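Ticket #4471: complex job returned nothing on first submit. Input attached below:
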Amino acid sequence: MKSFTYHRPTTPAEAVATAASAAAAPQHQPPGTTKFIAGGTNLLDLMKLQIETPAHLIDVTSPTLGLDQIQDTENGGLKIGALVRNTDLAADPRVRSDYAVLARAIVAGASPQIRNMATTAGNLLQRTRCPYFYDTDQPCNKRTPGTGCGALHGYSRQHAIIGVSDSCIATHPSDMAVALRLLDATVHTLQPDGTPRHIPIGEFHRLPDNEPHLETTLLPGELITSVTLPPPLGGRHVYLKIRDRASYAFALVSIAAVIQPDGRGRIAIGGIAHIPWRVEAAEADLPQGAKAVTTRLLAGARPTPQNAFKLKLVERALASILEDVKGPRP
Ligand code: SF4
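Support reply: We reran it on our side without changes. The output follows.
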């Protein structure tokens, strides 16, 4: 592991100020990036493999930061602190009753041990599980820009089928982010200059284009402070995750859905793109059935021969959900 400086700020303002001053450190300081760390469930693995080699690590787990609460908002929604653990979020009675799709996505996302450590912000920022990204002997534009993409002509069963580029076909691994995209969450931050910013979740993650190493619209040193949810949608909440084995696996395809009694609703898809995939215009076709929706949802898809099966898998998984919600509540 490379050496790094370690900081433990006591307020969010101090955290972004520390990040800003570390990035501007004089030449005799270690060069490189600055990273915030909380649960560390992804970052520590990446550091051990020397895929992430931050020069400055800023530990944002101090309780004095005040980012570990779940609170009601004035408009009837919910404010989730960036440091709320996945376990606590999935178990919160308000989430279980009013945002059940979020609770189910989190529970489907990882083992209890990981959920006990992983935080709301960290879950949004976790990096792809593309095997070429983790193998430093392989080319990977995301890990080392300009080196190529091992997956494009290699093993690509798990990879993206839509929103891909010639530089990268990786998927976003988070289940929680798929539910947040469905719910129209907003990500709240402190920018490096200390001013707050509010980012709609649909503008938070980036498609790969020719810069797959840039995965979000966050500025360097910008700290996520909370995520807010609008008032509850009602309806039936479903999170269906299809994977190669029943647990400890990332999604081949996942679908977050909220379906109303009249058949209208929303869907967002995981496991098929570099971002949680949602096409609002396609949702108008939900009353017409899964085939109509997926025709619009997946228009322009560019699967590989190894993962073209995901096109049909999305349609069949959605058909299953639409059939199930006609029955009695479980
Ligand atoms: Fe790297 Fe993306 Fe290609 Fe995977 S798909 S090897 S993450 S560039």
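The chain has twelve helices and eleven strands. Closing as resolved unless it happens again.
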